[in-house]
Specification:
The structure is a homodimer. The first copy, chain A, is built from 13 helices and 14 strands. Chain A is an alpha/beta fold. The interface between A and B is large, with 60 and 61 residues.
Chain lengths: ~400, ~400
């Protein structure tokens, strides 16, 4: 049974601070009022800072998938070539979305756990110069992989006229993402990951190049709720608004959470904090004698995927961590079920949650008879955290 | 400036009780946990009771418009004939959605403020026997009109094989709607109206007939986030879930709000309460010497649209009601702007909010020099409320 003391260390939704949660208990205001418009504008402006873009940003009431859908359905029409490298559950989703709209999908399957190489994109674009969209997942939470998105962006711009669609749902706010500098045409984020807001809002950035494509597609486009032109039209009104009723309390929460990132902690510090925490978790896990799942050098900064050692059962490991120590971590998805576990370390969590999770993992492994010396993993984490935290400007 | 004491009497979002708001400050749980699955199941079961259907019901994270879109995009493909009678802002939206998907839309324009007659639907269906979908808005909030949906359903079934798509966003829970009995194939609701939950969730019921059509359309369908088959597949899993991350706190709130309607107040009582309140508002307004906008006999039970009398300015009327008495009512939309005002009386409000609103209107009209006898309108409302409330079973 779920308990309010449970510590949720999965790759999203992430724990939400009580300050942010409390925002949602404010009375509902009219979504067509000037007061709500101010909140919307503030959220959009702060999202632009976090996306690092001077382009457009829209906030949609829906799951992150709603904006993945928007990115594809607004730019792709029947028969268009879409290049999608597949290396996990969420990159697979881009394939499914593009196929829904009748795209001619070039699906490049990589082994799960391997990173995407810019050279692969280069080769594929040379073979298929008529690709219109390249859709990439930055941080693949299903495998704990983090891809070199800056270099990929460079290759796309050098080799083609294709749009660069990038899912940064589980990394934005916790990793170095620069929409304008990296040449990302449509970047997709979600409220419930590093932004530490409850699920229910998704964000999308749209470049000038993307707008040109959207205009070109004109009547061949087939979408309504997710039609980006309607979001643009509403946001450009004298009193900016959303085209359809937004989730008012989620916007209250988002404003509070973004204000913390942008004006209290600072985006750079948030990114650095995620880097330190991920380093601490990875190092501690290795120190315990466990093996990481993703390819070395491409490990995610927001989720760590670990191979389950022989002799240990996934259900026992995660079950005991939860029942005895009240720490919830995630299992593997699809064919990785039972083979890996995943620790989410994203959002507004502090070093406390990270240390507690490592501690619980160490004790659980010991409980289950795994050959482990208590204190070694957590000691390593302490070392990294105590040194690392000094680098974060106060 | 918005103030927490403001009384929000617009046609949605509606005031949300602090009990429901407080639910949202509970910590976030994993949306893939058994605990969340239980909440989802409870919400779906209660929604079935409120829709009065044994068919399927899905809950989507998004605006009500997301489910209007789902109803059309799942059942209509390019060139299909869709009949849409247009008599307000939201029926117009059905036209726009159907056109987005390339439908051949038969748009029948009625004067705003007039009700839809079943005979018109009969005539149109006889002229166009190949219509595949008839899309109707039950309670058109832009004009305060309530249409005879039972009779319309009867005509559609008698005359054609068309699907009956019905928007009950602003009436479900506050009016007599029987999805199965009235032959409604796809009914669409929203969280933020009579269900007295914050905005951000939309609901859709799907009949067997609708599923057959959805299957028929197969690959010609073009939608992903709103693909109803994915919602069905996820809900039919051993541990029911949603296909994409749902807004966890909105589900906490929805469960609390639906529990109140179904298990505390009772659906019949909720409907009766809305009937009494709407009768009280209409009668009071007439007693003040004002004229109602919608055609007599077809007035909405959840929103009352009133003509602004000569010599009174909309901005002054609504501005003073807000600044002096802290009651927020809505203006007219599109070409009705400045010509009507609209009082929302839906959701979990009590007689207190209704009486206060009538009182504020009476005082405001007096303040603005309108020829009115204070106490007459509110007295009439008291008469109706005091008598009516006796009919609600305790």
């Amino acid at each position: 049974m779920w308990d309010e003391r449970d510590l949720l260390m999965i790759p999203g939704p992430t724990p939400v601070s009580s300050k942010v949660l409390r925002e949602m208990s404010k009375p509902i205001m009219s979504h067509r009022s000037k007061d709500f418009s101010e909140i919307l504008k503030e959220c959009v402006e702060m999202m632009k800072e976090i996306f690092r873009t001077k382009g457009d940003v829209f906030i949609v009431t829906g799951s992150g998938t709603a904006c993945m859908d928007a990115a594809i359905s607004n730019t792709v029409s029947e028969g268009d070539k879409v290049l999608v490298p597949v290396y996990g559950k969420f990159s697979q989703r881009f394939v499914d979305i593009a196929k829904s709209y009748g795209a001619d999908v070039i699906e490049v399957k990589l082994e799960w756990g391997k990173a995407l190489r810019p050279d692969l994109i280069r080769d594929m674009l040379r073979e298929n110069p008529d690709v219109e969209v390249v859709a990439v997942v930055h941080n693949e939470t299903s495998t704990g992989i983090r891809n070199p998105i800056r270099e990929i962006g460079k290759v796309i711009r050098e080799e083609s006229e294709a749009l660069y669609v990038l899912d940064v749902i589980s990394s934005l706010g916790g990793d170095d993402i620069r929409v304008d500098d990296f040449g990302i045409d449509l970047a997709i984020a979600g409220s419930q990951k590093c932004l530490a807001t409850p699920p229910g809002l998704a964000m999308i950035s749209v470049s000038e190049r993307a707008w040109e494509r959207i205009e070109e597609k004109g009547n061949r486009r087939r979408t309504y709720y997710l039609d980006l032109k309607r979001y643009k039209g509403s946001l450009e009104k004298e009193v900016p608004e959303t085209p359809y009723t937004p989730s008012v309390p989620l916007f209250y929460a988002l404003r509070e959470a973004l204000d913390y990132i942008v004006n209290v902690e600072g985006l750079e510090n948030s990114i650095k904090r995620h880097e330190i925490f991920s380093d601490a978790v990875r190092s501690a896990v290795r120190e315990m004698g466990l093996e990481l799942f993703p390819e070395r050098g491409y490990e995610s900064r927001t989720v760590t995927a670990v191979k389950i050692p022989e002799g240990i059962e996934d259900k026992e490991l995660r079950g005991r961590m939860r029942s005895k120590y009240r720490v919830i971590i995630a299992g593997g998805q699809d064919h990785l079920s039972g083979k890996i576990f995943r620790i989410g370390h994203m959002g507004s969590i502090t070093e406390r949650e990270v240390l507690i999770t490592i501690s619980a993992l160490e004790m659980t492994l010991k409980d289950l008879g795994f050959d482990i010396e208590l204190g070694k993993g957590i000691g390593k984490a302490e070392e990294i955290i105590s040194t690392g935290m000094d680098q974060i400007a106060k």
